[in-house]
């Protein structure tokens, strides 16, 4: 029967045989799947694995620097690419959620294709695809799905013509985490909540500006750090904050103010297909709300989302 030790042993041996001295390029997202796939491939082919981690300007606060640092400590050959401005330019003026997703997908492809071209003689595209991604017939997730839906016209980018290697494509999520543990990947990476590819862009309702991203990053960091310090993070499947496109009235001294509203969302789930809102302690929610309102300029109201999926989705758009 299946053990992560034997999986690692046979997979590394198979990858060595299959890849030989070939070069592989892989896009890291900071998430569990791409991280485990990278470390596994690195075991097999070492420096011939070229990882690319793109800062799309839509990540959590300080996430790019922190995750890049963990990848370096894992010994990965990883290039961090700051493309924040390109993504903001591509998103400028777009409010429709699907147009935002498309702009992000296309910009990612352009950046990744450029970076892949810089690796001389690269022969393979590595991907962190897991079994549920394989069987999910209509998937909105992951770079490859995005690529497929946006490059039906005009031909594929060059990196899509590479041979594909997907060492995790027979595994479920819990098995991926076990494999990651066997490989010595730190819990701070393996235990991370899922985070959507388009990142904070689909948690800022309406159009995206760097100023809005900055506000949401601050709010989100207070919420997530609070969950961690209260020991609640591991009980939650996914959590985050949403910046609403409305201003609500508040009072400051004798003045009425109109400032922004944020919603907090935390859900429990097994696979993201259905989800329940988390019954977080009132004291905790009160504390987080105070901290957000006191520390984040421009926000005067915090609400908590108490809807379950279905019919509400986990994200707001
Ligand atoms: P929903 O909002 O559909 O989300 O209940 C289910 C899971 O999918 C994630 N999600 C996305 N992931 N690209 C992604 O990579 C997307 O466009 C996208 N939309 C939603 C969501 O965060 C949750 O984990």
Automatic annotation (TrEMBL):
Record's GO cellular component terms: cytosol
Pathway(s) of this molecule: Purine metabolism; GMP biosynthesis; GMP from XMP (L-Gln route): step 1/1
Catalytic function, reaction form: XMP + L-glutamine + ATP + H2O = GMP + L-glutamate + AMP + diphosphate + 2 H(+)
GO MF entry, a single one: GMP synthase activity
Binding residues for ATP: 29-35
Record flagged with keyword Ligase: yes
Keywords associated with the record: ATP-binding, Glutamine amidotransferase, GMP biosynthesis, Ligase, Nucleotide-binding, Purine biosynthesis
Source organism superkingdom: Bacteria
Keyword Nucleotide-binding belongs to the record: yes
E.C. no: 6.3.5.2
The protein's role, per its UniProt record: Catalyzes the synthesis of GMP from XMP.
Assembly: Homodimer.
Name of the featured protein: GMP synthase [glutamine-hydrolyzing]
